[in-house]
Write a structure and sequence with these properties.
Keywords: Signal. The protein is α+β, with helices and mostly antiparallel strands.
């Protein structure tokens, strides 16, 4: 009886489809190269794979580095995470175009480094995202409903020399993230958050407006909870934080 159950279990397991499959190195290289060209930042990752069931592509050991001359190398490492997953339309891969519109970053850290009033590495990244939307002028919403089918129909091929990736990110989600805030190379605070969401990145809002809408409420909340001994606030320089808030609010 036990042998029969084991045999049935083996047959069921064998019959199940393998949802997570590796992506060819040529496609991974294409993603990195065109991210570098379009975002003016470096993208590093390992073990890129796609999941047909979840309609997403995932990368492990992710690092995104900006190229801001006013910042030191450590502070240019804006994002470090265990996993990056993104969705989009890849049925156009046979036409040599990949469209990416949603990205989720899990179990990592976001380093926001201000180098002057109203300017940081995060401002730079969000500004690049907005410029790409304006440049390409594509309507992403019409393609979102078909994204799952698009992933399921995809047939990975060797990209040609004229292949392109449209990094038109509409929504950026951080799950389980530690936010590190620096000002003029000096650490101000480090706070752990369950989630941080930047939405409607294809709108006409400026990077400063996105940051004010998403990040400033968090920073103000942290400032209020510092004296309450919130365990999610890992470290904070109270004096530097208040000076920073006063300057940026002006």
């Amino acid at each position: 009886m036990l042998r029969s159950l084991a045999l049935i279990g083996t047959l069921i397991t064998t019959a199940l489809p393998t949802w997570a499959q590796p992506v060819p190195e040529s496609v991974a290289t294409l993603l990195k190269q065109q991210f570098s060209q379009q975002m003016q930042a470096n993208l590093y990752f390992d073990e890129l794979s796609y999941n047909l069931q979840r309609a997403s592509v995932s990368a492990n050991d992710v690092r995104i580095e900006t190229r801001i001359k006013q910042l030191s190398e450590p502070l240019n490492q804006a994002i470090i995470a265990e996993q990056l997953s993104f969705t989009g339309s890849l049925e156009a891969l046979t036409q040599q175009q990949i469209l990416i519109h949603d990205a989720t970053i899990k179990n990592g850290q976001l380093t926001i480094a201000y180098y002057q009033t109203g300017r940081s590495n995060l401002h730079d990244l969000l500004q690049r995202v907005g410029q790409l939307h304006q440049r390409n002028g594509q309507n992403l919403s019409s393609q979102r409903d078909d994204s799952r089918l698009s992933w399921q129909r995809v047939a990975w091929q060797q990209p040609t020399a004229d292949a392109s990736v449209a990094w038109q990110i509409e929504r950026l989600v951080f799950d389980n993230v530690t936010v590190n805030l620096f000002d003029q190379e000096k650490p101000i605070l480090s706070v752990k958050l369950p989630q941080l969401i930047f939405d409607d990145l294809g709108s006409e809002q400026t990077p400063e407006q996105h940051i004010q809408a998403v990040l400033w409420p968090i920073i103000n909340s942290v400032a209020k909870s510092v004296w309450a001994g919130d365990e999610n606030v890992i470290a904070v320089d109270k004096t530097a934080l208040m000076k920073f808030l006063w300057r940026e609010a002006g």
